């Protein structure tokens, strides 16, 4: 084999070095291009929107966790105190992490397992805390309510809280219709513009409460299976004739004085307010409707 002259061997070495530099530069450019694509993909509008929604949900959950609740007064009533709600957690929320392997592969490849684990580690407890019912001191409710007799029309002569009724100019009226083990609820009032406002919902009985504790929901029927939207409705006082009733929420933030007629006797109202005050409701903030006499 003929040996290459020294100058030819030097040329080959120079050519090899140039090729190595070109290949290195190509790899560097490919790395920069890949990094740019990842940044653009991570900053796509839908991802930014999802991050914004996540921050809003986390903020709402944190606000709910730190929001102070009113301190109740000493419990006093005509019936033994009963729990105001199960207040239990939502164990199914903890199973959200098991959904990760079930997601489509194209979704999982777009997300970092470490980031998903961090989001679940922080987000799941927040969501669980958000959905969990607070535990308030129990209210003393009546022993038993005959829902068939309780059904019909009730006039709201006074209330505490219920900001959604602030726009009502006329005396709010609620009608209950039996529907199996539940009550269909229909609230009506007339606003300042003269238009009638109607809200329809359903009330379900809390088991073991003697029908004195219910939960009402005004969300669409297809959302009733979710743990959201159900609010406590507890009957604290009810006369034998089912003509007047006192209904409250265990948070002590909402209270209703109901009567079959728009006008209630002053002594009857005073007796109901004494019961409410004994249960820790701030009756001095009670709003009396001008049409209630």
Automatic annotation (TrEMBL):
Superkingdom of source: Bacteria
Domain Lipocalin/cytosolic fatty-acid binding: 145-289
One Pfam short name: Lipocalin_2
GO terms (BP aspect): response to stress
UniProt entry keywords in alphabetical sequence: Lipoprotein
Statement: the UniProt record of this protein carries the keyword Lipoprotein: yes
InterPro entries registered for this protein in UniProt: Calycin, Lipocalin_bac, Lipocalin_Blc-like_dom, Lipocalin_CS, Lipocln_cytosolic_FA-bd_dom
Protein name: Apolipoprotein D and lipocalin family protein
